[in-house]
């Protein structure tokens, strides 16, 4: 199984937009996203993926089949993080692997590839009700860091409500 992580060029914005519908549907039971009057889930930061210098939209493929996406923000100043006190921190904004590829090690390979490619402090936020995501990230980060997670806390404020993990890659 060949897992690849590729930048999404602006010309392929529609691919990311379509995958975002699957992702929002999948996560709506945890985060309360609702369809608009046209039957679509909105994502107000879609265009920002190509206009903000710190953002990286990435497509996940397995053996050339589209499998999911990752939206990463790199070198975020500490005033925009939840727990990290590092001067610059990397954040996974959104992470989606389609159901048929889950529990096959795809997500772990993608996450570890990101951590290897973008060394530094990382902050991973999970939705409070999404127990599967929380277990996934704890396991992946624990294995990647040999158990060296810097901070782990349930953050509950106006801008975030859920667990946050901070670690060094």
How would you sum up this structure, described in words?
With 169 residues, the protein is an alpha+beta fold. It has one domain: 3-Layer(aba) Sandwich (Aminopeptidase), CATH 3.40.630. Helix content is 30%, strand content 34%. It contains 4 helices and 7 strands, in the order βααβββαβαββ. The protein has a 7-stranded mixed beta sheet with strand order 1-2-3-4-5-7-6, with helices on both faces. A hairpin with a 4-residue loop joins β6 (149-156) and β7 (161-168). The longest helix is centred in the first third of the chain and has 19 residues, at 13-31. It is globular. The two termini are 25 Å apart. The relative contact order is 0.16. The mean pLDDT is 93. It comes from Lederbergia ruris. This is Acetyltransferase. It holds the Pfam family Acetyltransf_1.
What's the quick description here?
The protein is α+β, with helices and mostly antiparallel strands and 169 residues long. 30% of the residues lie in helices and 34% in strands.
Mean pLDDT: 93
**For this structure, what is the CATH homologous superfamily?**
Gcn5-related N-acetyltransferase (GNAT)
Strand order of the largest sheet: 1-2-3-4-5-7-6
Shape: globular
User: At CATH's second level, what is the architecture?
Assistant: 3-Layer(aba) Sandwich
- CA radius of gyration is 15 Å
**Poorly predicted tracts of residues:** none
Distance, first to last CA = 25 Å
Helical stretch count?
A: 4
| Domain unit count | 1
Determine the strand fraction and express it as a percent band: 25-35%
The CATH class name reads Alpha Beta
Order of helices and strands: EHHEEEHEHEE
């Amino acid at each position: 199984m060949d897992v690849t992580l590729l930048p999404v060029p602006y010309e392929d914005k529609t691919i990311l937009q379509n995958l975002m519908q699957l992702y929002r549907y999948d996560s709506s039971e945890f985060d309360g996203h609702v369809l608009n009057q046209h039957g679509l889930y909105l994502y107000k930061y879609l265009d920002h993926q190509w206009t903000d210098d710190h953002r990286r939209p990435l497509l996940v493929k397995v053996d050339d089949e589209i499998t999911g996406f990752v939206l990463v923000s790199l070198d975020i100043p500490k005033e925009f993080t939840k727990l990290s006190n590092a001067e610059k921190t990397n954040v996974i904004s959104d992470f989606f692997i389609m159901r048929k590829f889950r529990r096959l090690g795809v997500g772990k390979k993608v996450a570890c590839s990101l951590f290897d490619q973008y060394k530094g402090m990382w902050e991973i936020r999970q939705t409070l009700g999404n127990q599967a995501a929380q277990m996934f990230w704890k396991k992946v980060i624990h294995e990647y860091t040999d158990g060296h997670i810097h901070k782990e806390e349930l953050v509950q404020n106006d801008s975030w409500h859920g667990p946050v993990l901070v670690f060094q890659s």
